[in-house]
C-alpha cells in the first residue's frame, strides 16, 4: 500500500490541473478561437467588399498592403473587430491603403500594393 | 461499489476539469470548454471503471508532478540562493562567522555525534566543520572586506540587472514623447539639438498628464518645467518688454498639438511665441495665450472659445490653426467607423467611449447620425471626404465667428502645412515616408486628397500650407509636427496675414 502525504496529493491534483490546462491550450490553439491562425486573404477581401462596399479590385489592393504589413493576428482583429481594435500605430498602414486603393483613381494616382496584386 | 481511493481520484479529476471548463468559459472559449467537458466525461467514466486506465492516469500525474516539482524548485530556489543565501554567506565570511563551526567553548546548536558518524536519526547529516574547531574567528583586513562587499554588490547587480533586462525585453515600455508618431524625436528635424531629450520628456509628461474634460473632451493640466510650462490650460509664450503706458493686445491662439508646439518646440519658440516676437519687432506688443492641446480639432477649439467667452473672458483677437487633425478625424470616421462621418467629433473618441462603457452600463458603439444622411458611411468618393472635413470645419469657423461677434473681437483662421502639402520635401523629411506607411503611390494619393480639401476650405481661412516650402533643411518631424525653424516660418506667414489687423487694433500706423 502506497501512503501518500497531503503534499503529494496536492502536487498530484495540481499536476492534473496543469496537464488538463495544457491540453486545453492546445485545443484552443487548434479551435475556432485561435488568434494566431491566419485569415485566408480571399476571406478578408470578401469581407471588405461586403462591409465597406469596395470593388474586388479595391479590396485586393487594400489586402495587398495589409497582408504585406500586418501580422496574422492583426489582420484577423481588423477583419473581425475593425480598425479601432488595432493599436493606433497600425492605423496608418490600413488608412493610407484605403485612401490610395479606393480613391486613387479619382485622385489621378495609380495605387497598387508592393506585390503588384490588386 | 467504488473503492475510496478511486472515488478520491475521480473527485479530484472532476474538480480539475470543472476548473478548466470555468476558465475557458471566462475567457470566452466556449467551444473549447465544450470539448474539455466531453473529454472530462470520458476520462471520469474510464477512471471509475478501468483499473488499467487509472494506472495510466496515476503514472502520468506522477511524471507531471515530478516535472512541476523540479521546475518550481529551480524557479523558487535559484533566486533565493542568488539573492539571499550567496550574499549572506559572503557577509558571514567577512565577519568571520560560520554557522557550521563548533565554537571554542563547544557551545553550539549542533548535536555532537563526534566519534560516531553514523547515519543520524533526522534527515540531516552532521556536517559540522570540525577542522575549524580550534580556530578563532577569522580577522579580515580591509582588502578582504572590500572584496567581499564588492562581490555581494556584484552578485546583486547581476541578478537584479538580469531580471530588469529580462523584464525590459519582455514588456517594452512605450516611448515617452509628445504626441508625434513613434520615432519623431529621432527624425532629422530634431536631431543634433541637446535640449531635445529634456524637452521631449517634459512634453511627454504634459501630454500624458492631460485629463478628460466635459465638452472639450480633454484638457492639459498645469506643468512646470525648464522648456515646457502650462498654467490654466495655457502654454507659456514669449513675453515682450512692454514700454510703460502701453497695454499689450490679448491674442488667443487655438489649435492642436502643432499650435502647442509638440515634438518639438520650447516655450519661447512656439508659433505663438514667434508671432509675439515678430509683432514686437513692429512695435506691437502682444500678450499671447496659447490654448493649443494635443489632438484638438477646430470644433473643439471653437467650443473652448465659447466656454471662455461665456465665462466673460475676451481677447482682442482669436487665432485658429488647424488642418491634419480635422482631416484625420473625418477619414477615421469614414474608414474606421468611429463616429458618424461629417459630424463634429474628437480624436480618440473610441478610447473614451470604450473606457466609459467599461464602467457604466452603456454601449461602446457610436451613436446614430445627428442629421439623417443618405451617405453609405464608408469610404467611397473623394467628395464625401472633402465635404465631411470642410463642412465640420466650417461649422467650427461659424461658431467661433459668432463668438467673436458676440464678444466684439475678430477671429482669424489658418490651415497648416504638413507632409502632404510641403513641396519639395527635404531628404530628411522624405525618409519619414516609409515609417509612416507612405510608399510613393499612397503619398501621392494623400497629397492629392489634401489639395482637394484645401481648395474647398471656407473663404475666410488662410491657407498656410506653402509656408514651409522655402525653408532650408528638414523641419517636419513626422506628418505634421515641426521643429523651431518650422515654427518660425509658419509664424512669419501667419504674422504677415495678421499684421494689418494687429496694427489697426494697436492703433498704430504702418511704418
Q: Quick recap of the structure?
A:
The complex is a heterodimer of chains A (118) and B (511). Helix content of chain A is 66%, strand content 0%.
Largest interface, with counts of residues having CB < 8 Å to the other chain, equals: A-B, 49 and 53 residues
How much of the sequence of chain A is in beta strands? under 5%
| Total count of strands of chain A | 0
Q: What is the residue-averaged pLDDT of chain A?
A: 82
Could you explain the architecture of this structure?
The complex is a heterodimer of chains A (118) and B (511). With 118 residues, chain A is mostly helical. Chain A is 66% helix and 0% strand. Chain A has helices at 6-30, 41-52, 56-69, 72-81, 91-107. The longest helix of chain A is centred in the first third of the chain and has 25 residues, at 6-30. The radius of gyration of chain A is 23 Å and the shape is rod-shaped. Helices cover 49% and strands 6% of the residues of chain B. Chain B contains 14 helices and seven strands. Chain B has helices spanning 4-26, 30-49, 51-95, 142-170, 196-208, 257-260, 271-281, 298-310, 324-335, 349-359, 382-407, 427-430, 440-455, 484-506, and strands at 230-231, 234-235, 249-255, 286-290, 317-322, 411-415, 461-463. In chain B, the strands form two sheets. Chain B has a five-stranded parallel sheet, sandwiched between helices. Chain B has a two-stranded antiparallel ribbon with strand order 1-2. In chain B, helix 3 runs antiparallel to helix 4 (142-170), helix 8 (298-310) runs parallel beside helix 11 (382-407) and helix 9 packs across helix 11. The radius of gyration of chain B is 36 Å and the shape is extended. The interface between A and B is large, with 49 and 53 residues.
Amino acid at each position: 500500500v502506497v501512503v501518500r502525504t497531503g503534499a503529494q496529493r496536492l502536487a498530484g491534483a495540481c499536476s492534473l490541473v496543469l496537464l488538463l490546462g495544457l491540453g486545453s491550450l492546445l485545443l484552443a490553439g487548434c479551435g475556432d478561437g485561435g488568434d494566431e491562425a491566419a485569415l485566408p486573404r480571399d476571406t478578408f477581401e470578401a469581407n471588405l467588399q461586403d462591409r465597406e462596399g469596395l470593388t474586388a479590385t479595391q479590396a485586393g489592393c487594400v489586402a495587398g498592403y495589409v497582408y504585406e504589413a500586418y501580422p496574422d493576428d492583426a489582420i484577423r482583429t481588423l477583419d473581425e473587430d475593425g480598425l479601432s481594435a488595432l493599436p493606433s500605430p497600425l492605423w496608418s498602414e490600413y488608412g493610407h491603403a484605403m485612401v490610395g486603393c479606393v480613391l486613387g483613381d479619382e485622385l489621378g494616382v495609380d495605387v497598387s500594393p508592393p506585390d503588384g496584386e490588386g | 461499489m467504488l473503492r475510496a481511493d478511486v472515488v478520491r481520484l475521480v473527485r479530484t479529476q472532476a474538480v480539475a476539469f470543472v476548473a478548466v471548463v470555468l476558465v475557458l468559459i471566462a475567457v470566452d472559449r466556449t467551444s473549447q470548454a465544450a470539448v474539455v467537458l466531453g473529454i472530462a466525461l470520458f476520462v471520469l467514466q474510464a477512471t471509475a471503471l478501468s483499473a488499467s486506465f487509472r494506472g495510466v492516469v496515476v503514472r502520468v500525474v506522477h511524471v507531471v508532478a515530478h516535472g512541476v516539482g523540479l521546475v518550481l524548485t529551480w524557479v523558487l530556489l535559484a533566486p533565493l540562493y542568488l539573492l539571499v543565501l550567496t550574499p549572506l554567506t559572503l557577509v558571514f565570511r567577512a565577519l568571520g562567522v560560520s554557522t557550521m563551526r563548533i565554537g571554542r567553548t563547544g557551545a553550539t546548536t549542533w548535536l555532537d555525534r563526534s566519534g560516531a558518524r553514523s547515519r543520524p536519526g533526522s534527515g540531516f547529516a552532521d556536517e559540522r566543520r570540525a577542522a575549524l574547531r580550534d580556530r578563532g574567528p577569522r580577522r579580515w583586513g580591509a582588502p578582504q572586506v572590500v572584496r567581499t562587499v564588492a562581490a555581494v554588490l556584484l552578485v546583486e547587480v547581476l541578478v537584479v540587472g538580469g531580471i530588469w533586462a529580462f523584464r525590459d525585453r519582455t514588456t517594452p515600455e512605450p516611448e515617452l514623447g509628445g504626441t508625434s508618431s513613434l520615432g519623431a524625436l529621432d527624425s532629422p528635424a530634431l536631431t543634433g539639438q541637446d535640449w531635445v531629450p529634456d524637452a521631449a520628456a517634459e512634453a511627454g509628461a504634459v501630454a500624458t498628464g492631460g485629463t478628460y474634460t466635459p465638452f472639450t473632451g480633454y484638457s492639459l493640466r498645469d506643468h512646470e518645467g525648464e522648456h515646457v510650462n502650462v498654467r490654466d490650460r495655457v502654454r507659456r509664450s514669449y513675453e515682450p518688454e512692454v514700454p510703460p503706458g502701453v497695454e499689450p493686445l490679448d491674442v488667443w491662439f487655438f489649435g492642436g498639438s502643432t499650435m502647442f508646439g509638440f515634438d518639438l518646440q520650447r516655450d519661447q519658440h512656439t508659433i505663438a511665441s514667434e508671432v509675439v516676437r515678430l509683432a514686437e519687432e513692429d512695435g506691437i506688443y502682444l500678450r499671447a495665450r496659447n490654448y493649443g492641446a494635443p489632438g484638438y480639432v477646430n470644433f473643439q477649439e471653437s467650443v473652448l472659445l465659447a466656454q471662455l467667452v461665456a465665462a466673460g473672458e475676451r481677447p482682442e483677437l482669436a487665432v485658429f490653426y488647424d488642418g491634419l487633425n480635422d482631416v484625420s478625424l473625418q477619414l477615421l470616421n469614414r474608414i474606421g467607423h468611429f463616429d458618424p462621418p461629417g459630424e463634429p467629433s474628437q480624436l480618440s473618441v473610441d478610447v473614451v467611449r470604450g473606457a466609459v462603457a467599461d464602467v457604466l452600463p452603456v454601449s461602446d458603439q457610436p451613436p446614430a447620425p445627428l442629421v439623417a444622411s443618405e451617405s453609405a458611411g464608408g469610404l467611397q468618393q473623394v467628395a464625401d471626404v472633402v465635404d465631411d472635413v470642410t463642412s465640420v470645419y466650417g461649422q467650427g469657423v461659424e461658431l467661433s465667428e459668432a463668438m467673436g461677434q458676440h464678444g466684439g473681437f475678430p477671429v482669424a483662421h489658418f490651415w497648416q502645412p504638413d507632409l502632404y502639402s510641403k513641396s519639395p520635401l527635404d531628404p530628411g523629411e522624405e525618409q519619414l515616408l516609409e515609417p509612416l506607411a507612405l510608399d510613393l503611390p499612397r503619398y501621392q494619393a494623400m497629397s492629392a486628397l489634401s489639395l482637394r480639401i484645401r481648395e474647398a476650405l471656407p473663404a475666410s481661412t488662410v491657407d498656410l500650407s506653402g509656408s514651409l516650402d522655402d525653408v532650408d533643411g528638414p523641419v517636419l518631424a513626422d506628418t505634421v509636427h515641426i521643429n523651431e525653424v518650422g515654427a518660425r516660418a509658419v509664424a512669419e506667414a501667419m504674422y504677415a496675414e495678421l499684421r494689418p489687423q494687429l496694427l489697426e487694433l494697436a492703433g498704430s500706423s504702418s511704418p
